Amino acid sequence: MDAGVAKVNAQQNPLEIIEIVAKEHFDFIVMDWKLPGLAGMALLNRFRAMETHRYTPIIVSSGFLEKTDLALLGENLLIGFLEKPVQRGTLIRRVGDLYEESLWMHDKKDLLTEIFTKIESSTVEGKLTVLETLLNSAPHPVPIGCAAAQILIGKQRYKEAEHLLIQLLKKVPDAIFPLHLLGKIKLLKKEYVDAQKILKKAYSRSPKNVERLNLLGNAALHNLEYEEADSFFNKALTIDKLNVTASSGVKVVKTIFDYINEANKKPGESLASLLNTIGISHIKNRKYEEGIEFYLATIPHLNDTKLESRIQFNIGLGYLRWNKPKEASTHIQQAMTLDPGFEKVKKLDVQVQAILHKNQPDFAPERIPTSKPTASKLAKVPAPAPASANKTASPDLADLPPEEVITDEDSQEPKG
């Protein structure tokens, strides 16, 4: 084509688009904001969640965008907007501008990575001086600064990330995404009240960011504000009905409501306490399907690797009591991966492997993803085995209690 484009792939079904973009490389994406079956922001989130398209330039075309939509697009890196009807020359110029910014970004992204991998021993001030120099040369300092902050967050360098984001907000007080990342850091640091305040400030300026809605739901959960958590998770689902984190959040809140509303039931002093109490009560009462589904739904909202390892242990124990040792092994292996020092799960693994190798000499346990479950993981687990098959797989495990993920004093259920 005379515009320098060698190949164009045009699609109308957003779900098919996601599959194609996940499998193929594209130098540029042009998308409509109003699509059948999936909101434009939901589709944009899917693209940015793909490692191969995290920095792919994207142009959004629409006949009408609300101010909140424009604010949302402004939070994202390498995003352009064109109002319909789109003129050919305007499109080519906008593509060229974004492509130049993309080349700069790719070049500096490698430099950012090098800064954090090769000069780990340098002072905080030294790193930030280099970064601030880099920001001054950036076409748009906020996106590149936020990208740098995200690298720092991934390395759990929260202090440096907070400092950088605060500097960005001093330069551009109205910027929304630095606020979003500051709230995310507070959540990771388990400062849930501060996280909620900062995220709500960003939410007031841009209310359609799905990740932010889920973060607000998680903050409300940890602050024991269950109705507010339910509201934010449901708002996320109105934008992206397939969002796994929001779906699991709604399920967790509903289970909490059901449990609290039962006679003589009181919420725990912490979210961990309440989740532990509900899950253990299901397993002890042989409601294995309910218990396992509930535990799986809690995983995206735990915010604690050690806690997740205990939940994975309890899922494994639930499957084992359900006479499903193969499924039990998968989650027991995950618990050991998350916390190699977890001695109780190592002992259980030895017994489960003995059971499996006795029945299946060539058995090898399967690995499952950490933290963020896929939709299939949240799908309904198989129906219970017949009562005659619901025997504990080993006499040694008959009285083994679920792992207490909190202190004994906080648990409301008696030990098994």
Instruction: Please trace the helix and strand order, writing H or E for each element.
Output: HEEEHEHEHHHHHHHHHHHHHH
CATH topology of the domain at 271-397: Serine Threonine Protein Phosphatase 5, Tetratricopeptide repeat
Arrangement of strands in the largest sheet: 1-4-5
Q: CATH homologous superfamily of the domain at 271-397?
A: Tetratricopeptide repeat domain
Based on DSSP secondary structure assignment, what is the total number of beta strands?
A: 5
- Assess the beta-strand content as a share of residues: under 5%
Instruction: Report the CATH architecture of the domain at 271-397.
Output: Alpha Horseshoe
Structural class: mainly alpha
Question: How does this structure look, described?
Answer:
- With 416 residues, the protein is mainly alpha-helical.
- Among the domains are: 1-86, 3-Layer(aba) Sandwich (Rossmann fold), CATH 3.40.50; 271-397, Serine Threonine Protein Phosphatase 5, Tetratricopeptide repeat, CATH 1.25.40.
- Helices cover 59% and strands 4% of the residues.
- It is built from 17 helices and 5 strands.
- The protein has helices at residues 14-23, 40-49, 67-74, 88-118, 124-136, 141-154, 158-171, 177-188, 192-205, 210-222, 226-239, 244-261, 271-284, 288-298, 305-321, 325-338, 343-359, and strands at residues 29-32, 34-35, 38-39, 58-62, 79-83.
- The strands form 2 sheets. A 3-stranded parallel beta sheet has the order 1-4-5, sandwiched between helices. A two-stranded antiparallel ribbon has the order 2-3.
- Helix 6 (141-154) packs antiparallel against helix 7.
